[in-house]
Amino acid sequence: MNQQRKLDLNLLRVFVAAYQTQSVTQAAEQLDLTQSAVSNALSRLKQYVGSELFTRTGRGITPTRFAQELYQQIQSPLLDIESLMNGMTAFDPATSQKRFVVYCHEAMIHALRQSLDRALAALSVEVVLMEPPSSNEQLYDDLMLEKVDLIIDVDAPTSRVFASKVLTEDQLCCVVSETHPRLREANLSTAQYLDEQHVLFKMRRHQLPFIDWLVGESLPARLVYSQHASLIGMLAAVSYSDAIAAVPVSFAQQYQTMFQLRILPFPYDSGSFQSHMVWQAKFNKSQPHVWLRDCIEALVER
């Protein structure tokens, strides 16, 4: 390592972005730099430390063992510094015209949207709610690249780069049409559930279908009636068919009357699942982000 020259700390910021995204292109996008600037910074840091940092693999880059050890050493201090600096930015919701973008899963998005409309009616602050991408990889890539400020998802983050807080807890239930010819009792057995045609949700988490991930096991093959990217679409399909679907209890109750549904217990022991509010840890003390998180938490608790 070259001890004669002072280290440009900006090189470490570029290194962390490249390490986290494992892509020069995405690191450049995250830092608002050109790809050549990122490549040049990584080259300068490589010369300073005297060791290879990344190897090229296809379209991306893979950190070397030295880079892994370096990242473990500098990640927390850099997060602390960024968090401190972000916390120094003043924010007044009464005068700010800031625009926030939030990914929110469908089971919460409509109720939260209505609550936000009422809460922000007298403010110029804008909070845009968007349905998230179906894969959790894309979800966290967009958060890392600051395409969104916050995500509300059913999965908690595992990386220290992100911070999170539980917003709500919910249970799964089954829904069928009120006129379903067979499922007319209050109880539902596993055999009855598997014998029916199923309306499925396209969302996947950790390479598993959504329901299988929540249950914690791969369920037996089911006869598919239809598959949807939207929970609303699932309820609509159930309403005009003899198919069955598994959805969050709160969501089923919200639309039970509209779609004329019967709510039945989910026959597997899935326990509860949580909705997590997730953000980049470097914004822990950022006044705009703290305000956004506090606002959403207060509205959800009402």
TrEMBL record:
Belongs to the LysR transcriptional regulatory family. Coiled coil: none annotated. The keyword Cell inner membrane does not apply. It comes from Photobacterium aphoticum. GO terms for molecular function: DNA binding; DNA-binding transcription factor activity. Residues 7-64 form the HTH lysR-type domain. Pfam families: HTH_1, LysR_substrate. The keyword Flavoprotein does not apply. SUPFAM superfamilies: Periplasmic binding protein-like II (SSF53850), Winged helix' DNA-binding domain (SSF46785). The lineage of its organism: Bacteria, Pseudomonadati, Pseudomonadota, Gammaproteobacteria, Vibrionales. PANTHER family: HTH-TYPE TRANSCRIPTIONAL REGULATOR LEUO (PTHR30118:SF6), HTH-TYPE TRANSCRIPTIONAL REGULATOR LEUO-RELATED (PTHR30118). This is LysR family transcriptional regulator. Keywords: DNA-binding, Transcription, Transcription regulation.
